[in-house]
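Researcher: Next entry: phosphoadenylyl-sulfate reductase (thioredoxin) (Cyphellophora attinorum).
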Amino acid sequence: MVNLSSMLPLIPFSVQSFFNIAPSSPSPSPQQADKMSRPSTPAPIDTSCESGRSTPLSKTADSGYGSAAASEIDLPEVYFTKPHLQFINRQLQNLEPQEILRWCVTTLPHLFQTTAFGLTGLVTLDMLSKMDIPRPQMVDMIFLDTLYHFSETLDLIDRIRARYPNNNVHIFKPVGAETEAEFAAVYGDRLWETDGERYDYLVKVEPGQRANRQLNVQAVLTGRRRSQGGKRGDLPIIEVDEDGTIKVNPLANWSFKQVKEYIDANSVPYNALLDQGYKSVGDWHSTQPVADGEDERAGRWKGQEKTECGLHNPKSKYALFLMEQEKKREQEVLHEALKRVDLKS
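Model: Predicted structure:
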């Protein structure tokens, strides 16, 4: 995973070459460059969901290059310091989304797209599908199935599969549950009402962390935009979260109007709920239509203080509690080990 603790130089093939800036370190040799541009062979993807392994919604891409999960190329890790992030954000800020995506695909290894199939994510998917550049990896999608999505959302996934047959979707569900009924039996009925933070952790945060771990995710494309309001108002183009994952928000500068115009102009399939007054769609129990003049995400958790599910804020009280318990267990194990050493001496 990406390490921000050490002040390491940016990898040679990234920002400098893309923005025509004189590199501060040598470029890769022709042999290395050839290795990076050589297509890899696609590989099959696991089909079991119960333990969190990914489920493809389409066959593995046969377009000449493999998925990020299946690539045989030895992709390097990427290191960004705070000055690097500030510099890159200044440069990316003035680019169109397609140019930002091009930079991401050619620069960031182990790149995935996290999506709940909202409008912004669909624009990103369509732009990626039309990107005609050599690349050593596909940008696979990661969908976190909370088990409480609208039927319209699940129907959209089938339509997306038909429209983009070469794009893989990895589905991750809560541990120990495949249906709403199973989730309620294991964790309690209407958990989102009795313990909202625990619910968010179980259906979004933990499956997301599991996806990153199993797929070796180092960078993700998100569908967040500044015009969505709330905590997203000052969203940067590129950021690094607390576990070191690079997050890129390629359409951060776009408005809802721009996104919808792109969807219509390119005939991109979208969630039928948007024609019923919804603008941001999540779980059925916490999503409502939006009134005229309201923020785009005003229909999410209406009447509550929360504006995010925890996926982009994993340090919830429940997550912190789990971390504290884990540290406590580690300390107890260490204490017992030291006691045994004392007894032997």
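Model: Note for the record: The chain has two domains: 15-30+38-313, 315-345.
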